[in-house]
Structures are given as structure tokens and as C-alpha cells.
């Protein structure tokens, strides 16, 4: 197998300026609904890129849990690598790789911690098993075996057998407030259509076409 021979054309349609909404949030919502309606798996999956104190980037996939004109929301263990890196450098990048419809969205912004009330509301909405898993996992830290992880999970299950599972003090969430958002549509011959929304000082968004 030669990796350089793996290629295909992008033919699902172009993107023009007059097809875009003036608001990047409205445009994102339109595209997200189209991904959901098309039935592609994990439509809210997004890559979160952070940078550590040595300048080393890292990435991971999380799920988008809310989006409005304030920004893009996700939740995580505050002891995780991503949370620790955000604490040191709040500038992050999000990437939505919607390959099935030959589209991508890239968000550049700053991650701001959510209030405890918002975190608790989301945590209590999760399935019970997911709540227990949050308690059982010391995210990003070494664990000796899968068996040890499952033993901790079952211990948490016994501990919280009765009543609601409380919010862990190490569980939090972030709203990524964007200052730039790129919409990418695949094009024939690698002549892709790319448009960047850039937030202006007055709060409005300017849209510019980028070379592919």
C-alpha cells in the first residue's frame, strides 16, 4: 500500500459568500443540523487542541454539549491534561471534521471556566453510569490495569447506590469564546472553499475568503 496513492476528489458542492449567514453561530448551527440529518455518527465530536508550558500541542476528541452566541461548551475532569493546560494557557482551537459531507469547521478562541451551577446541571443530566465513571477516573493519570479501573468503578457504584450522585469537585466545564471561525468546504482539484469569520472590535464579524 502506497499512502501517496490514497486520494479522492471532493465533489459534494462548493461554498460561496452569498451562501453564508452573517453570524458564524447561525452558520454553524445550519451545518450541524445538516450533519445530524444526514445520519453521520458523532456529529458533535470535536478535536480540542491545547498547548502545555513547553509549547507542546496536544489534542483529544470531546463532545460539544452546547453552542450559542457566547461560544462552544464542553465538560471535563479538571485534573485532566487538557484542563491543566487550559489553566496555564486558555487559548485553544476546536476542529469539527465532518468528512462525510466534505466539510470542516475550525474555531479559534479562549476557554473560560463555567460556573458550578452550569456544570452541576449538566452532570446531573448524564446517565448514571457516566456519572460513576467520572468519579472512578483520574483522567490522564496512569492506571495499572483495566481491572483496577473497573474495581474503582464498582466501588463508586456501591458508594453511591442510594440517591443522587453528587457533582465531583474535580469536574468542570468550559465555554470556548471564539474570535475566529473558519468554514471549509471541499472542492474539486483541491481547490477548496474556505471562509474565515473574524470578530471585530465592535463585536461584528468580518468574513474573508481564504486560499485553499
Automatic annotation (TrEMBL):
Pathway the protein contributes to: Cofactor metabolism; pyridoxal 5'-phosphate salvage; pyridoxal 5'-phosphate from pyridoxine 5'-phosphate: step 1/1; Cofactor metabolism; pyridoxal 5'-phosphate salvage; pyridoxal 5'-phosphate from pyridoxamine 5'-phosphate: step 1/1
Enzyme Commission designation: 1.4.3.5
Entries under InterPro entries matching the protein: Pyridox_Oxase, Pyridox_Oxase_CS, Pyridox_Oxase_N, Pyridoxamine_oxidase_dimer_C, Split_barrel_FMN-bd
Chain residues that bind FMN: 60-65, 75-76, 81-82, 104, 139-140, 184, 194
Biological processes annotated in GO: pyridoxine biosynthetic process
Residues that bind substrate: 7-10, 65, 122, 126, 130, 190-192
GO-annotated molecular function: FMN binding; pyridoxamine phosphate oxidase activity
Domain of life: Bacteria
Catalyzed reactions per annotation: pyridoxamine 5'-phosphate + O2 + H2O = pyridoxal 5'-phosphate + H2O2 + NH4(+); pyridoxine 5'-phosphate + O2 = pyridoxal 5'-phosphate + H2O2
Keywords: Flavoprotein, FMN, Oxidoreductase, Pyridoxine biosynthesis
Cofactors demanded by this protein: FMN
Pfam families: PNP_phzG_C (PF10590), PNPOx_N (PF01243)
Ranges of residues in domain Pyridoxamine 5'-phosphate oxidase N-terminal: 33-150
Keyword hit for Oxidoreductase: yes
Enzyme class: oxidoreductase
Cofactor: record remark: Binds 1 FMN per subunit.
Domain Pyridoxine 5'-phosphate oxidase dimerisation C-terminal intervals: 171-212
Protein family: Belongs to the pyridoxamine 5'-phosphate oxidase family.
Quaternary context: Homodimer.
Classification via HAMAP family: PdxH
Stated role: Catalyzes the oxidation of either pyridoxine 5'-phosphate (PNP) or pyridoxamine 5'-phosphate (PMP) into pyridoxal 5'-phosphate (PLP).
UniProt-recorded name of the protein: Pyridoxine/pyridoxamine 5'-phosphate oxidase
Organism (species): Pseudoalteromonas xiamenensis
Gene: pdxH
